[in-house]
Amino acid sequence: QVQLVESGGGLVQAGGSLRLSCAVSGRTFGLYVMGWFRQAPGKERQFVAAINWSGDNLYYGDSMKGRVTISGDNAQKMMLLQMNSLKPDDTALYYCAVKTRTSGSYNSQDQYCSWGLGTQVTVSS
Hints:
Structural class: mainly beta
C-alpha cells in the first residue's frame, strides 16, 4: 500500500503563492500517475494537475492552468505543486492521489486508488 501525506497549505492573500508537497511512502512500484485534486465545501472534487512517475508528462486542469506547476522527485519520493496568482475561488482542501492503471482518464477521480487526507488552502480577498 502507498501512503500519501500532503503539507504546505495555509492562509494566503489573493495574488499570493503557495507550494504544496505530497510525501510518498510504502509500496511505490506499479505507480503510473500522481495527481492533485481539490474540493471546496458543497462542491464536487476537481482535477488540478497530474504527473506520470517518470516526470516527463504533465497534465493540467482548466481551472488553474497557467497558475500552477506540478513536479516530482523520485529520489525524495515527493510531489510538488507550485501555485501562483491565487484567487479566493481556489480555497479548498487539496488532495494528492495515486493512479496505478495505465488506461483511463488521468483527470477522473475514480481512476485513483490511494489518497492523502488533504491540506487546506484558504485564499482571502
